[in-house]
Amino acid sequence: MRSFTFFERVSRACRDHGSNFKLVLLCTTVSGGGLLAYGDSVGTSEAVVPEKKKVVVLGTGWAGTSFLKNLNNPRYEVHVVSPRNYFAFTPLLPSVTCGTVEARSIVEPVRNIFRKKMVDIQFSEAECLKIDAANRKVYCQSNISNNLNEKEEFVVDYDYLIIAVGANVNTFNTPGVTENCHFLKEVEDAQKIRRTVIDCFERASLPSVSEEEKKRILHFAIVGGGPTGVEFAASLHDFVTEDLVKLYPGIKDLVKITLLEAGDHILSMFDKRITSFAEDKFRRDGIDVKTGSMVVKVSDKEISTKEMKNGGEITTIPYGMAVWSTGIGTRPFIKDFMSQIGQTNRRAVATDEWLRVESTNNVYALGDCATINQRKVMEDIAAIFKKADKDKSGTLTVKEFQEVLDDICERYPQVELYLKSKQMHDLADLLKESQGDVEKESIELNIEELKTALSKVDSQMKFLPATAQVASQQGTYLAKCFNRMEECEKNPEGPIRFRGEGRHRFKPFRYKHLGQFAPLGGEQTAAQLPGDWVSIGHSSQWLWYSVYASKQVSWRTRALVVSDWTRRFIFGRDSSQI
């Protein structure tokens, strides 16, 4: 009892005394051992915990998921709002349409992605209805109906808003497209296409259907000669020739696949060698490639096209299933948001080079719903000249220009692209070109001569493509910026502010192109990799397998996708409608 009374007194003394009470006690026990006790009582005053900033993320696509995966700063309270509670690996959607890969293999629940992170993240399965930029509010509607078959609405406040909602399919207001065509943007779209393909074969197998009607039912039309349309056409051809002909031998000769493209060539964004090879291969495979054919109307049984090369002649094509895969459009609430901030008559939200929406301070947009509005060098030429002319002489020497060269190239990436296109090492070579045969060290330029030297630099400006690769890199970039927000506020690491003082907080976003693939069927793929390196054939197909397996968002989906590919090699594609 004495020992307990003693320790109670020590404990009371630690509580009663002020900020710093220390005790060292050495007690000898009966066995001769020793016990060392050390107590340190710290004052009751607690450190002030900064209030967490509220970050609202709209969307769980490539951009939004990439942001969530890379956000590690616990000082944020994140609320994710999306109509789907999973991330979908969209490049494999064409494989889902034909049973090569199962839908469950390319989706990962978003809660699995961020459940182990130290950041406070909340998810709501809901759709954004409106953004109130002035009051920093997002109005949402739940995707889940209550007992009265009503969908609940709620409002979310934010300090930072990240818009990563992707885009709608662009029908170009073509009559009948929405009512009669399939799209290929979501997992549900791919599953619906898969069921429709099997339905067409089953309907054509009925004994009561005429030969002419069978031909119409088994005519598959794909509108759009981009990567998605081409890959779906190739996947469908393989599905038909390798699997369905064995199950439906009586109608195999009636199947027809037509690819409609308004431009002069399919895969126009690829190297001409790939375009030519793809068109030749499709023709050899029996896929009817119609270039210069613009779809003007779609009915329930016919597609009307306008031939761009033959004086605008209108022709009709009977079809059984049509897939529309061309262009992206703006979501309605994004249009409303753009009108609030004065960005009307645009296809996508305009952002600066740091992915911040123009005319806002705390809203960011990335992925297919946004486009970077890169500033032109000629817009800031006077500010650049003033900042570089440190001695205020009214002329620039090569030395003065070299001192701001890195900042110019970082702030205006088109400068570096222009120098590479002209095979120049630095801006001094560009200045020398404008001055003629003059030694670099003796070059001096006034502002008009500088304008002349840089007049063609802005011709290298390009808009980024609406691809998963771009969206993923933007999400990663923005997460790193948020992780280091406080640090970079104190120690900015970006380029010089040519139109202001100091430096930008962060380096601007710079897209790094890692190459692109175009699967062409028959275990052949076209690959266009950095450095204008082009590879076409079976080796590129295996490269495609390895890249798409490694890019899966989790080990679970990676294992499932590889398993599906293995199953397809052994047993063929799944032709059931489930």
Automatic annotation (TrEMBL):
SMART domains: EFh. It is found in: Mitochondrion inner membrane; Peroxisome. Its EC number is 1.6.5.9. Its main location: mitochondrion. This is NADH:ubiquinone reductase (non-electrogenic). Its cofactor is FAD. It holds the Pfam family Pyr_redox_2. Residues 376-411 form the EF-hand domain. The lineage of its organism: Eukaryota, Viridiplantae, Streptophyta, Embryophyta, Tracheophyta. PROSITE patterns: EF_HAND_1, EF_HAND_2. It comes from Sphenostylis stenocarpa. Keywords: Calcium, FAD, Flavoprotein, Membrane, Metal-binding, Mitochondrion, Mitochondrion inner membrane, NAD, NADP, Oxidoreductase, Peroxisome, Transit peptide. One of its GO terms (cellular component) is peroxisome. Belongs to the NADH dehydrogenase family. Coiled coil: none annotated. It catalyses: a ubiquinone + NADH + H(+) = a ubiquinol + NAD(+); a quinone + NADH + H(+) = a quinol + NAD(+). GO terms for molecular function: calcium ion binding; NADH dehydrogenase (quinone) (non-electrogenic) activity.
